[in-house]
Design brief:
With 272 residues, the protein is an alpha+beta fold. Helix content is 30%, strand content 24%. The strands form 4 sheets. A 5-stranded mixed beta sheet has the order 9-8-12-10-11. It has a 3-stranded antiparallel beta sheet with strand order 4-1-7, with helices on one face. The longest helix is centred in the first third of the chain and has 24 residues, at 2-25.
């Protein structure tokens, strides 16, 4: 009799053990990453640069060997009633400029730059925008060769859904990978579905696109358009089936689970 009870108890445990093995396979990131060859990584290599988007806030400074030569291109902050003016502190060996006005890219991707006027830089990479401004001011307006420096002041992404700390996260080096963002958000919760993550992205023209991602897919490391995030990306982690099932449980289901737990405990005691 005791042998039969043990056998039945063991049979009951088999589905639990199998489901545990299956659940574990859903946990790791980037499965089979070790199968990626050096050649594949080399082909996917990318020296990432952020693309300028509408509503970006930029710091643009122009430096020349003689500080006075570039002064007209570095406008000081003028006190005014407008509330959307931002500023940055800039210093140099020749005395510094103090607080400077920054530039908000308009919906057409343009900024109003001193002396030159309107410059369309939306959709350009940082280095491309710097080169464009350089070509517009030298040598037409400056006889000394300038150094144009552009920085993003609002390079941020949003992480939502089944993560430990949903919110907005800012990068100080104008670069963020998908896994950087998830790390900032405290990783996925136990209810996060690694095979159902979405990135909502806005193009320079304002068009939205949705990219579906499987965090276990090795090819994720080979796709720089997904692996590297753009500013203002929205990452949404969907809940897995376990959370959906839990949310549908009522009082009767909870009591049934409690009763099953007690029954297993009793069988364990009897078969000792």
């Amino acid at each position: 009799m005791k042998f039969l009870l043990k056998r039945k108890y063991f049979i009951l445990l088999i589905p639990i053990l199998l489901s545990s093995c299956t659940a574990y396979k859903k946990i790791p990131y980037i499965t089979d990453a070790e199968t990626i060859t050096t050649e594949e990584f080399a082909n996917a290599a990318l020296n990432y640069e952020a693309v300028i988007m509408p509503k970006d806030i930029l710091s643009i400074t122009v430096n020349t060997p003689t500080n006075a030569a570039s002064r007209d291109f570095n406008l000081p902050l003028v006190p005014q009633e407008a509330t959307d003016v931002v500023q940055t502190r800039v210093s140099s060996a020749s005395g510094g400029y103090g607080s400077l006005q920054n530039y908000i890219v308009d919906n057409d991707g343009s900024i109003n730059f001193p002396i030159v006027g309107e410059i369309k830089i939306g959709g350009l990479k940082k280095s491309e925008a710097e080169a464009k401004i350089f070509a517009l001011i030298y040598p037409q307006y400056l006889k000394e060769k300038p150094i144009v420096s552009l920085r993003f002041l609002n390079y941020k992404v949003s992480v939502l859904g089944e993560v430990a700390r949903p919110g907005n996260y800012t990068s100080t080096n104008e670069k963020m990978t998908l896994f950087d963002a998830l790390a900032f958000a405290g990783d996925l919760t136990i209810y996060g579905d690694r095979k159902n993550v979405r990135i909502i992205r806005e193009s320079a023209s304002g068009e939205l696109s949705v990219k579906h991602i499987d965090l276990q897919d090795r090819n994720l490391l080979l796709d720089p358009d997904i692996y590297y995030l753009q500013q203002n990306d929205k990452i949404i982690v969907s809940p897995n089936k376990a959370k959906g099932n839990n949310s549908s449980f009522g009082t009767l289901e909870s009591l049934a689970l409690s009763g099953l737990s007690i029954l297993i405990s009793v069988i364990s005691i009897i078969t000792r």
